[in-house]
Design goal:
This is Metallophosphoesterase. The protein is α/β, with parallel strands linked by helices. Helices cover about 15% and strands about 25% of the residues. The protein has one domain: Purple Acid Phosphatase, chain A, domain 2 (4-Layer Sandwich), CATH 3.60.21. The strands form 4 sheets. A 6-stranded mixed beta sheet has the order 3-2-1-14-15-16, covered by helices on one side. A hairpin with a 2-residue loop joins strand 6 and strand 7. Helix 1 (about 60-70) runs parallel beside helix 2. The chain is globular, with a radius of gyration of 19 Å.
């Protein structure tokens, strides 16, 4: 368990998180048949932020501060950052110090740009991570944190390190075979319904940029679900792609969580160089209810001008400076 004890800007929205109706006692109240008696059906509440890009975005610290302030005002089970947090160098210590002002449990996911200037081991040491992929339980749910930061070089899997991942897409954003086997065994060991969190996507949104390992990961997920009389893996969350989207594959929900900061549009298209910046920090609060519901309370902003539409960016219709509110049910078998 990666419970980290290490360690300015106004936000436009004051949306409150409504309490979900919680059932107690009977198996019928659940989306699955628990293997152990559960006294109460308690929801799990999570603060989720990803792709802050401290050091690349000049106001990354301010965007993180908005999140930490809001998360600290709520009763959450934990917060998590989904990768591309900071460069993991001395200049980013202010980012870690701010992150660690949060008093509750907090977790890290490794993103590719966290290794732009350091090795993976150095990034892990900076974040205080014992393992680059790991799992933990919270309430009625099991959480799996994965690491898609491997390249294929000369037929071998190698860690991302010092920006070595700027190679052909087919040979990067990979999950190594040892981790695939670990995932299989980890899912076999738990009776809880499971949420998988990664930096890179395992679905098909924006085809060509999802992890090339997505088929292997999804096979493990499908096999785990087919072996049980309940839906074991119910959802996957990722960052990395800086989009706001949702897909549903073989009864599993896949959520693309938008960046806190910007969308990379390339030179000539951005409001700040190659970046189409969001006016406000965006993040989300997740509520997982074992009776069968996932609720996302997202933050909404807009693009700074000139916007991608004003710049005639070819992908402008698909871009959003928000994380959508969503309420989805996960399948009951």
């Amino acid at each position: 368990m990666q419970n980290q004890n290490k360690g300015r800007r106004k936000f436009m929205s004051n949306i409150g998180l409504g309490s979900l109706a919680l059932g107690v006692g009977t198996t019928a109240a659940y989306a699955f048949a628990p293997k152990k008696e559960v006294v109460a059906n308690n929801a799990v509440s999570i603060g989720f932020i990803t792709d802050i890009h401290h050091g690349f975005c000049s106001d990354g610290l301010e965007r993180l501060e908005v999140f930490i302030k809001e998360a600290s005002s709520r009763k959450l089970d934990f917060i998590i950052q989904g990768g591309d947090f900071c460069y993991a160098t001395e200049e980013s210590q202010e980012c870690m110090d701010l992150w660690n002002t949060y008093k509750g449990e907090k977790y890290h996911v490794l993103g590719n740009h966290d290794m732009d200037k350091v090795t993976k081991k150095e990034a892990m040491d900076f974040f205080g991570m014992e393992k680059n992929y790991y799992s933990f339980d919270k309430g009625d749910f099991h959480f799996v944190i994965m690491d898609g930061n491997y390249i294929m070089k000369d037929g071998k899997y190698e860690d991302y390190a010092n920006a070595n991942f700027y190679i052909d897409q087919a040979n990067r954003s990979l999950v190594n075979p040892e981790q695939i086997e670990w995932l299989k065994q980890d899912l076999e060991k738990t009776d809880k319904q499971t949420i998988i969190i990664s930096h890179q996507a395992f679905d098909e949104i924006w085809d060509g940029w999802s992890s090339p390992s997505r088929f292997a990961v999804r096979k493990v997920i499908d096999d785990a679900n087919n072996r049980t009389d309940y839906q074991k893996v119910v959802a996957c969350f990722c960052g990395h792609h800086h989009v706001d989207d949702h897909s549903y594959i073989n009864n599993v929900h896949y959520f693309q969580m938008n960046s806190a900061s910007y969308f990379y549009v390339g030179d000539g298209y951005g409001s700040d160089g190659s970046r189409a910046m969001y006016k406000d920090s965006i993040f989300a609060f997740l509520t997982l209810d074992s009776s069968g519901q996932i609720s996302i309370e997202g933050r909404k902003s807009s693009f700074m001008r000139p916007t991608p539409s004003e710049k005639n960016h070819p992908d402008a219709p698909r871009l959003s400076a928000s994380i959508s509110d969503r309420n989805v049910n996960f399948k009951k078998k």
